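[Q] Does anyone have a clean structure-token version of this?
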Amino acid sequence: MLDDLQFDVFGPLTVRRNGELLEIPRAKHRVVLAALLLHAPRTLTAEELIQQLWGGEPPLTARKTLQGYIARLRKLLGADAVVSRASGYAIAIGAERLDLDRFNAFLQKAELTTEPAERARLFRSAMEQGNGTPLVDIPSEYLQQGDGAALLERWLNATESWADAEMAVGRYAEVLPRLRALVSEHPFRESAWGRLMTALYRAGRQGEALAAYQEARRLLAEELGVEPGEELRAAHRRILAGPTRSTPGPVPAPPGPAGPRPGGAAEAPARRGCPYTLPPSLAEFARPGIEADLIRRLRDVSREGAERTVPQTLNLYGAAGVGKTTMAVRVAHAVSPAFPDGQLYVELQRGDAFREPADALGELLRALGVDPGAVPADSGERVALYRGLLSHRRVLIVLDGARDEAQVRPLLPASPTCAAVVTSLEMLSTLGGTRHVRLGLLTAEESREILARIIGRERVAAEEGAAQDLVRYCGRLPLAIRIVGARLLERPHWRLETLARRLESERRRLDELAVGDLGVRDSLAVGYAALDAPERRAFRLLSLLEMASFPVRVAAAALGLPDDRAEETLERLTAQHLLDADFVKGSGVRFSYHPLVRLYARELTFDVDPMRSRHGAVQNALAAWYTRPAGALVPLRATPSAGGTAARAEVVAAGRAGLLPPELGFTA
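[A] Here you go.
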């Protein structure tokens, strides 16, 4: 650990050793350090750091240059400062050494506190740590628009929540300097203008409050061509109306986090009820062992709620089409009596787009009874209101199709009496208090059982052989089994053998595995869309290798990459469940495709990749496969020429041996 160093990301990036400022003059060095600090203690891959440094157009020497930047940082900070790991780099720093970690800790405590004075104190402590716009001197457009933008939004929300907390205890004048600076730096942030107007009015400066509204209105009209939103107009109307007879004193503050108000009990911004927004359960699903275990876990959470200190989260993750949503919904229905205050379901992905947490929070708040007009515009206030409404209630939240932990965290309940079930492609490994359950393929018996429940046991029993063929062609993928069952159900005159013959052809199999709004191809496209361009290329080209599985060195040769770059790419594909990885004794880690995934990838490569690229990938892979010394790795070679006698002979032999797809044409 770097016990003598102190890092600050708020304001200019600064490093101090024993209180003395440590200068980092090179801009690229500051970009690397900022990226590592924002994700500490998580490891960043070399590709992620390269993207932070150069965006989508890195130089050819990017990886070597990055290694030089890391070496320079180690020289400046200490040899143990930046740790090299198999997947990338991380910075070895304790939470107390980074202002961002201290800021987050105070902020989390403040958001969970309802006592006004203590809430104000905690927000004040958070702002003392986050004293200034974050990362103001980091020259990375990619970082500023990505992780930097997320941190900036969090800091802005925290600043506004701090102002609300201070005003709730009567400190109106004290918030004015920071709010004035906020609207000066972010002139189109209407929520900040509303708070400035309220603080001015409550401090007895009505004229300045009205002038602030006119200034905000002018800026919005001249720069954006729009009028102020409803929140700002409502604050203006309240100031014009002044105090009423029934409510002496200044106008109320803008809508803020749920919690006690000065001089009285907490407002009740929502109608309490028992919301129930789960979709219908799917009766044909059959995974009794896993389902029973998940139901038991959630029922135990409900029984232990009074003794627990944190809510329970279950993360169901796995490949597209393995039944994560179906399992989550079935389990939620089964445990509904254990959560009598409600069961809420939210889709976090619609098509290829993932929803912003603030949008999902709005849906949850409306489901919990908050009038649409009373839903706060500020995302931080939405989080506070949402968690306040769930406090001491027994509610189950189902969050379906999560992108990553950052999307999920604001949506998780804080009350230990609640629980959440989150589905995702990748394991959400950094969510605290979470149990992770991977859903894989069905067994042959489970596949047959689902098919029998859909079309009837008599129909399956009458054609046992054809039913086994259908299960094999579906690769025991739950989605594919459901599609096959639905197609047979709507065609009672079809024999099972009829559909089995149609699925026998690999060229048309994905076309056949579609019905209504369900399709295996569409499901796989979601994971493919989440990849970057090099990962997509690898996913496509490696599908041409007719090997049951392949090691890293063969993939590296096919893709024309060093072994370490190829391994990182394969690991990313594995995380998205587009490849499977297994450790084979004596051979190391081997990668393979699910049969339907291979068909999808091969469709794409013949649509996207030119013939030269496809032939080169296969030739390089086979050269690495056949010419390796026993027990040794093969160095990366250039693509053999099409006319090379040895390479051509190897490829032709492989084609005759069935190691290549016939579409490549290596048959002569």
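[Q] Thanks! Anything notable?
[A] The mean pLDDT is 82.
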